[in-house]
Specification:
Blueprint (H helix, E strand, L loop, with lengths): L1 H11 L16 E8 L5 E9 L2 E7 L5 E14 L2 E12 L6 E2 L4 E8 L2 E6 L11 E9 L2 H6 L4 H4 L1 E9 L2 E12 L2 E8 L3 E4 L2 E5 L2 E10 L2 E11 L4 E7 L7 E7 L1
Antiparallel strand pairs: 1-2, 1-9, 2-3, 3-4, 4-5, 5-6, 5-7, 7-8, 8-9, 10-11, 10-18, 11-12, 12-13, 14-15, 15-16, 16-17, 17-18
Length: 255
Amino acid sequence: MLIVVGLVVLAVLPALAAENPPSLEPLQGKWMVAKTHREGQRYSQIIEVKKDKLTFQVLGEEGRVRLFAKGTIQTERAGAFNVLTLTDIQGGRSADELEPVDDTRAVVYTLRDGQFFLASNFDKERSNEKPTVETYVRVEATKEATAGSGGGESRLMGTWKVELSFGDNNFDYGLRISKGDGRLEATLISPRSGEHKCKSVSFKDGELVIEVDREIEGNQVTFIYKGKLTEDGLAGTTVVKGREDQFNGRWKASK
């Protein structure tokens, strides 16, 4: 699988089209992946993006910094792929021991369901660094991103616990919201029937609108969730499209 990804990366990088580059906004914040050495010792890798600057840390099991690097990033489109290029790289054992690194790195990436997927070291051979595909999860959004959005869209990202009421019936769900390729995505998670990818998600003028297809008594229907951010989380109404008079209720969500 890694070889296939590598061949794809090498094929598309020379053919970068003159398209509008993907936005850096969805990448803003801190991301982490937990790993284990061959010796069984656990460690973690942290990526943090602030505007067009990226920092990378490797932390030991005790939380001590083992490696620190930083650089400037820009994004490009290569056919169907997003490419992240890191330049002006500095690295060292800590943030206080940095030296210039004579290298430029290009990685293929994507954001899906709140996860940051990176395919690294396919652009060229590097000593003691094998090609890898890693999955990072968001730790937190940057304060700048939160302030810049007025505490709006950035607050939506992550996994929510949903309580839905239809008359006397109450249901519990999970709701995972993320942003990939500049657009919002969501997945409704039912403990009874599994995951249901929402067919549309929008956030405008402070209102979140989600449409998800489900089945009621053997009939395919579309649920529409409308809600607004509150101090406690999300709250709003739910209806079944075309049957608003029969199926309508309220929902709230918290993290």
